[in-house]
Amino acid sequence: MSPRLRRRIAHFNRRFTNPVLQPLAARLPGFGVVVHTGRKSGREYRTPVNVFREPDGYVIALTRLLGVADFVRMRLDTTAPKS
After folding, report:
1. Element holding 21 (H helix, E strand)
2. Does the pLDDT at position 12 exceed 50?
3. What residues does each domain of the chain span?
4. In contact, 12 and 34? CB cutoff 8 Å
5. Does residue 49 carry a pLDDT above 70?
6. Residues ≥6 apart with Cβ < 8 Å to 63
7. Percentage of the chain lying above the pLDDT 70 cut
8. Are 9 and 65 in contact (CB under 8 A)?
9. Which pTM was predicted?
């Protein structure tokens, strides 16, 4: 997939898909909302995701098209309140 197409899909998701799914994601089975803070902006983001229960925890499906650098920067915040 070309980088241009990836950017267009990401833009579409941020602009249309996420705002529609976000209010529903916290209530629908198989969905959840990841709350995270931007590294540079400090802005709070809420991203709807697919969540699957496993015997020893949960698996979150990354539906965004991430680059390698994005994976390296991702880390779990264990100090965040659990809800």
Report:
1. helix 18-25
2. yes
3. 3-73
4. no
5. yes
6. 49, 50
7. 73
8. yes
9. 0.58
